[in-house]
Amino acid sequence: MASLLEGQARPIRLADIARAAGVSHGTASNVFSRPEIVRAEVRERVKAVAEQMGYAGPDPKGRLLRAGKVNAIGVATTEPLSYFFDDPFARVMMAGISEACDATGAGIALVSAANQEKLAWNIQSALVDGFILFCIEGGSRLVDLTRERKLPFVALELGFQDETVSAIGVDNVAGARLAARHLAELGHRRFAVLSLAFADNRTGFATPEIVRGALYTGTRDRLAGYFEELARFGVDTTKIPVYETENEEKSTRAGLEAIFARDEPPTAILAMSDRMALIAIDWLKARGLKVPQDVSIVGFDGVPDGALCSPALTTIAQPITEIGRRAARMILDHDGAVRRETMGVELIVRASTGPARKG
Amino acid sequence: MASLLEGQARPIRLADIARAAGVSHGTASNVFSRPEIVRAEVRERVKAVAEQMGYAGPDPKGRLLRAGKVNAIGVATTEPLSYFFDDPFARVMMAGISEACDATGAGIALVSAANQEKLAWNIQSALVDGFILFCIEGGSRLVDLTRERKLPFVALELGFQDETVSAIGVDNVAGARLAARHLAELGHRRFAVLSLAFADNRTGFATPEIVRGALYTGTRDRLAGYFEELARFGVDTTKIPVYETENEEKSTRAGLEAIFARDEPPTAILAMSDRMALIAIDWLKARGLKVPQDVSIVGFDGVPDGALCSPALTTIAQPITEIGRRAARMILDHDGAVRRETMGVELIVRASTGPARKG
DNA sequence: CATTTTTGTTGGATCGATTCAAATTTTCGC
DNA sequence: GCGAAAATTTGAATCGATCCAACAAAAATG
């Protein structure tokens, strides 16, 4: 009976406590938020009344409106929510973000959605002080949506020409050059590139026009880095097949099929992500090709999985955790300025690269 | 100059728009939340004014207070935030939770904290409609803290005697029996148990008193399951060493050292988590012991990593994703009732178990 | 004991929206 | 052109707290 009534009764508010305890709501509020300025006797009485009435404590919803600050940052992506827990790159990034948030006591709200409309709504209605955007597929839409909200935000991967957007990324050109030089120095001369997208929703071999019209400058820069360095070694880069994938299993395998169906298959693969590189290793092994004896592969990102697989992946490591930490701090101590940071990368040589086969 | 002033000006409110457009707040509100009931002409005018004044859309903070519902669930743990992205079990669970949230458009807020005080505060102030609690170390404190908040919550792992708490877990006794029977049927007679905690903050061999006074009944049930089944095979369970770990590297290794330092080392290890089982495989391999030829191991949980390691782990698989989905739905369509669900488990035989060595 | 200082308490204003009954305007049938 | 019905718009009330200027009471000072 009691529980039935209880279920219907609306929750107890601070004002109810104040009335019951015979103090003003101002004092009641102080009991909870600044207990030290309330006389001990009054404080105890109010607390006792609250306890007895089953008060849950000041409702954050009310406090929030007054305070104006949520003390949480939103991390958004166009991928489904599970992306945050599945993707190795995202996970390391989240570790960095978590660290910065843990340190200041800020919360993390994951924002995503099954479709465009819902994504827009979720971004509009997320209770956060700012956003960190995982700009993968559809990054530009994500930025547009977030801009509407008029809250501070940082784009991860500065693959945007748009200089008015705060972003943190890595030196893609330098990283790509490191990868290319490493392979060239091992004697490789026949290459293929597993590329990230130059624009949304496309896979297949990328023509020079596509590259020139790249929406994602990060992809463009990596390719430019590869080509610049290979050209220095006398490689004719116009002959290098560049296959655009969606950075997942299916399109990457399709790309490998297409690349190895051509005359003169490559002895070395430049992959723009570790994800693709790891898929490629799998694919090659299944095809009976030895890595690195038959084909060498260099990845990009430096996710932990790369060290564990067999053969361990040679890659261009980004300081992923540090990027995450900085992104979070950018939001947490936001000062209104647009910041664009470029982090250095590092070549990590492991077992997936070796000398080019003679002939 | 303009941007300087803009920076200081407080954000535009709906009321500002209403005034500027010459309509009431009610109408202005409708333009954004129920556009179809506003006359087209008025709607466009208000929208134009909003656009021109740089209005960011209705502030969720305001809406929230009125609506009362946040449309987000909090997932809390006593571990640091990075736990959600690192721990394999947590990750699979989060995938299930994400799925259910994605389906209804609900958000996820991760709640955790470096220390007790902050954890309490973060739980008190999390903007959520309910909580899912990862009850690992310190689960009972977490439940107490959350109860204060008087919001619906579900405890994962029903390791609580407390029947007033909603919880989802697995049939620990049945699972443990499956594991024990599998090993016994392979001829094993000398066992050791790598146990989860019976109460907070303790590691080392567990005495019968400790087991009897278990705070975590999940741990107790698993042990009971092991023992019941082994007893059926004539094993003297009083001689089985049970080592309590914190389910991480250090204490698990310490446990293995202690177990293998005894006379008559075990030929089979029953691990209460895959995490410990995987650490054990590593430890044994490093020690020159072959798995499963010298020592067989059965884990518990069924995390994906178990299938990938070498040798692949035989384990008791929980329907982790499904548990996550159900937990999320329990909060999302909460009806005020306390629910306790027990899910079935499944023995997955892989390569880490084999026949007992003769003699 | 009168006066200042310190300490505590009060209640109105505010945060930014949504809701709904009542008032107003439009539309429509005849 | 009139009255009824339908479509819009209004404005006060509400959500649940915090903040702060003004006031009251108690303590310290001369």
Task: Describe this structure in a few short sentences.
By secondary structure, chain A is α/β, with parallel strands linked by helices.
What are its keywords?
alpha/beta; 15% strand; 3 domains; homodimer; 359 residues; elongated; DNA-binding; 46% helix; Rossmann fold; disordered N terminus; 6-stranded parallel sheet; 7-stranded mixed sheet
Corresponding CATH superfamily of the largest domain in chain A: Response regulator
Q: Please, what is the oligomeric state?
A: homodimer
Give the helix/strand class of chain A.
Answer: alpha/beta
Order of helices and strands of chain A: HHHHHEHHEHEHEEHEEHHEHEHEHEHEE
Whole-number average pLDDT of chain A? Answer: 92
**Strand residue content of chain A:** 15-25%
Largest sheet, spatial ordering of strands of chain A: 7-8-6-9-10-11-13
CATH top level of the largest domain in chain A?
Alpha Beta
Largest beta-sheet details of chain A: 7 strands, mixed
Q: Examine the coordinates and then state which fold CATH places here, giving the name of the CATH topology of the largest domain in chain A.
A: Rossmann fold
What is the number of E strands of chain A? 13
Counted up, domains of chain A total: 3
Q: Give the % helix of chain A.
A: 40-55%
Radius of gyration of chain A: 27 Å
Runs of chain A in which pLDDT lies below 50 for 5 or more consecutive residues are 1-7
Number of helices of chain A: 16
Write the layout of secondary structure elements.
Two copies of one chain form a homodimer.
Chain A (H helix, E strand, L loop, with lengths): L1 H7 L5 H8 L3 H9 L6 H14 L6 H8 L4 E6 L5 H4 L1 H17 L2 E5 L4 H10 L5 E4 L4 H11 L3 E4 L10 E4 L1 H14 L5 E5 L8 E2 L2 H5 L4 H16 L9 E3 L4 H13 L6 E4 L2 H13 L9 E6 L3 H4 L5 E4 L2 H13 L7 E4 L2 E3 L11
Parallel strand pairs in A: 1-2, 1-3, 3-4, 4-5, 5-12, 6-8, 6-9, 9-10, 10-11
Antiparallel strand pairs in A: 7-8, 11-13
Helix pairs in contact in A: 2-3, 2-4, 7-16, 10-12, 13-14
Chain A binds a DNA duplex (30 and 30 nucleotides) through helix 3 and helix 5.
